Amino acid sequence: MVNEKQTFHVATQILRQFHRAAKAHDVAEASGDDRAERVQSARIDALREEVSFHPVGSPEAALYFAQLLRGDIDQVGDDESEFDAQARLDRMERLAVGLVQYLERTSGIDRTDWRLDWYGGKECDARAYGSVSPVFAA
């Protein structure tokens, strides 16, 4: 059985890994170590992708998701291939779904309360992760 409380904190742990990698990147950049800088940059990119598959479990993780989403929006159009562009859009959708679910879970407000499911109901959330919930598959 999965401990739900721990599951929600994976994104926060990944944020901590990002923080360490970003500090190591800064040190490498300051010292002129191009190889270490590239390694940390690749690690940061991998963490960005990985975290998007986990639920938001803390305000810090929510801020991380929001900043990742903002960064992806800023870089739309910079992708070198159609595959990269689609991967960015897929990640942006996962980040947005994660933020919406976190806000619903922590605020007690449901998107249906304000008819915000117009823009995507809970039945659409599973698609962001590449699957369809059996509850809604017919």
What's the layout of helices and strands?
Layout (H helix, E strand, L loop, with lengths): L3 H4 L2 H22 L2 H18 L7 H16 L7 H26 L14 H4 L13
Ranges where pLDDT stays below 50 over 5 or more residues in a row are 133-138
Structure summary, number of beta strands: 0
What is the SS-derived class? mainly alpha
Average pLDDT: 88
What is the tally of helical segments? 6
Helix content: 55-70%
Q: Note the gap between the termini.
A: 27 Å
Report Rg.
Answer: 17 Å
Q: Tell me the series of helices and strands, N- to C-terminal.
A: HHHHHH
Assess the beta-strand content as a share of residues. Answer: under 5%
| Shape, per Cα inertia axes | globular
Largest sheet: none
What this model shows, in words?
This protein has helices at 4-7, 10-31, 34-51, 59-74, 82-107, 122-125. The protein has 138 residues and is mostly helical. Helix 2 (10-31) runs antiparallel to helix 3 (34-51) and helix 4 (59-74) runs antiparallel to helix 5. The chain starts with a helix and ends in a 13-residue tail after the last helix. 13% of the residues are buried. The model is unreliable at 133-138 (pLDDT under 50).
